[in-house]
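Lecture notes, unit on protein representations.

Consider one protein chain, 134 amino acids long.
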Amino acid sequence: MEKRKKDNPWKLKTPPLTSEYEMYIDIINDREVIVCTVGKTILHYDYRIINDLHNMLKEYGDWMLLGSKDEKVETKENTVEHWARSSENPIGGWYGLKKGLRGRVAMYLPPLLEELGLAEVEHNKRNNRMRYKK
């Protein structure tokens, strides 16, 4: 899989296609992370989420609601956002790494998986879903 660096980030749009942002892979504190830059806000996500989310979608076998929420907002079960912070996921908790900014996985990661050819993502104004792609 291609790993883009800071000087050549992926240029992506949120699922509703309303906002642009960039992502690239970096090493921070000896950990491989996805750096997500949205305006002046910088978020970090555990790099393992790419394969873990792809595998979870394969097992799920259908469209799954994204359900994007900020860190402090409760999530709904059977959504990508709920899975990304659940003790039941492969890392046993949050894929978001920056305290206070650990949410919004379901806003920023699905377009990356779509770009990598690993998922299909809907692009409606609201209630978007994603599913596994071979």
